[in-house]
Recover the amino acids of this structure.
């Protein structure tokens, strides 16, 4: 007799049992380019990872190699695709372009020196009240957050019980973390997302958990604790104390 597939709901399980399994979204910021830290690259084409950036991305790929990754998605920009390829190769997976996780459209600010932008009044608003910002001839920060969050929600629906990697950019990742942890967008600048860092969200039917933030260390806990579990157990009391 063939054993049942453990990844599928039991025959007598509710119809939505498979959908109740949580999904791990591994958000990776692209590694550095020659412009990182000096210019606002935005969506400008033709900006590749630097030699140091490729080394960073290689290290991130090695760190994530033991993790059971089901799919690798990336913002459709050279530096994100290149970072994603160095992660995906460890899993024998293609890199799937995901336009919704692209960098914010900085409009007229694209390609400008950060030292010049910091002198502008709008820069101060970006730091203090980003929910009120629309970049000149570009995108509103609230629009950027909405599309990033929407993309993650779709991935959680499409990959129940799985771990997926999404290679994106600092501001979209920060905006997503703010949303899923209940932090107002106006406080999202308090979140740090370094190049090639890993931030992990676990999404289930009843909410989200921030598992890792701006992490550059080991991924052992992601290997030991796959997300293929029911989000809640009817036999467990809702008043159960947090075990830390």
């Amino acid at each position: 007799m063939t054993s049942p597939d453990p990844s599928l709901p039991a025959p007598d399980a509710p119809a939505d049992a498979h959908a109740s399994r949580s999904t791990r979204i591994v958000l990776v910021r692209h590694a550095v380019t020659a412009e990182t830290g000096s210019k606002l690259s935005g969506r400008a084409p033709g900006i590749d990872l630097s030699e140091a950036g490729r080394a960073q991305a290689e290290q991130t790929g090695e760190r994530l190699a033991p993790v059971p990754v089901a799919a690798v998605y990336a913002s459709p920009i050279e530096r994100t695709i290149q970072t994603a390829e160095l992660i995906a190769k460890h899993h024998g997976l293609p890199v799937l372009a995901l336009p919704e996780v692209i960098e914010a459209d900085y409009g007229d600010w694209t390609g400008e020196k950060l030292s010049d932008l910091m002198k502008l009044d709008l820069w101060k608003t970006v730091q203090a009240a980003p929910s009120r910002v629309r970049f000149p001839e570009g995108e509103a920060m609230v629009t950027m957050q909405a599309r990033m969050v929407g993309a993650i929600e779709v991935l959680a629906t499409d990959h129940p019980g799985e771990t997926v990697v999404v290679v994106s950019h600092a501001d979209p990742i920060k905006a997503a973390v703010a949303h899923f942890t209940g932090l107002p967008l106006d406080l999202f600048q308090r979140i740090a997302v370094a190049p090639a860092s890993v931030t992990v969200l676990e999404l289930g039917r009843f909410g989200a958990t921030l598992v890792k933030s701006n992490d550059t260390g080991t991924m052992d806990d992601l290997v030991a604790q796959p997300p293929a579990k029911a989000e809640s157990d009817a036999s467990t009391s809702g008043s159960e104390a947090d075990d830390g």
